[in-house]
Amino acid sequence: LFMSRCHYGHKETLRHVNMTPYLFGVRCGIDIIDLDQTLELLGESLNVAAHVAYRGGIILFIARNRQMGPLVEETAIQCNQYAHTRAWGGPVFTDRDKYFGGGVTRLPDLVIFLTTLNSVFLPHAALRDANKMLIATTGLVDSNCDPRPVAWPVPCNDDS
Q1: What are phi and psi of 48, to 5 degrees?
Q2: Closest Cα to residue 15, out of 3, 6, 25?
Q3: What is the pTM (predicted TM-score) of this model?
Q4: What is the pLDDT of residue 7?
Q5: What is the pLDDT of residue 149?
Q6: Cα(126)–Cα(117) distance, rounded to whole angstroms?
Q7: Phi then psi for 136, rounded to 5 degrees?
Q8: How many CA atoms lie within 13 A of 23 on its CB side?
Q9: Which pLDDT does position 5 carry in this prediction?
Q10: Which of these, 140, 144, 130, lies nearest to 59 by C-alpha position?
Q11: Half-sphere exposure of residue 80, counting CA atoms within 13 Å on the CB side?
């Protein structure tokens, strides 16, 4: 984790107040994320994902970073799961009859966010919709994100 630079957060002035317990400290005005907590929470998150996959559940990977898009899609295909790497098209989970033509559509059992913010640094709409539909969520939470909407947050630099 250290070699991947997962411990770098954002500037201290951009810190979300609810991320304070996950921080190790500040160096040169940059938040430093506590990797001991990251390792423990990553293990819990992987355990949840493994349990959902073992039960035959549906896992949806959501990423908004253009550089990670092809890799996320390829990984999801290798896992026989699903990925969404483009702009979120509104309330897809909450209004699925409109988007999928009224057919019986099974919602995912777990949504994995590679970043919990959209491209304009607001909470991702899919995170809000997943919480409304009681879909389990896990994801990487950077120092400028709110970890509360994520059921299993993993404090980490979401750009590394």
Answers
A1: -65, -45
A2: 25
A3: 0.86
A4: 64
A5: 94
A6: 10
A7: -65, 140
A8: 23
A9: 58
A10: 130
A11: 5
Q: Are strands 152-155 and 136-141 parallel, antiparallel or unpaired?
A: parallel
Residue partners of 37: CB distance under 8 A and separation at least 6: 22, 155
**pLDDT, tens digit only, all 160 positions of the chain:** 555 656 666 677 777 788 888 888 888 888 888 888 989 999 999 999 999 999 999 999 998 888 889 999 999 999 999 999 888 877 888 887 777 776 667 899 999 998 888 776 788 889 999 999 999 999 998 888 889 999 999 998 776 6
The residue length of the chain stands at 160
Smallest CA-to-CA distance from 46 within 126, 26, 54, 135 is with: 54
Give me 116's structure tokens: 């919990």
Quote the CA–CA distance of 158 and 160 in Å, as a whole number. Answer: 6
Q: Which two tokens stand for residue 124?
A: 């991702």
Question: What Cα–Cα distance (Å) separates residue 78 from each residue in 13, 14, 48, 57, 65?
Answer: 40, 36, 19, 15, 20
User: Under a CB-based contact definition with an 8 Å cutoff, are residues 111 and 137 in contact?
Assistant: yes
C-alpha 47 chain-centroid distance: 15
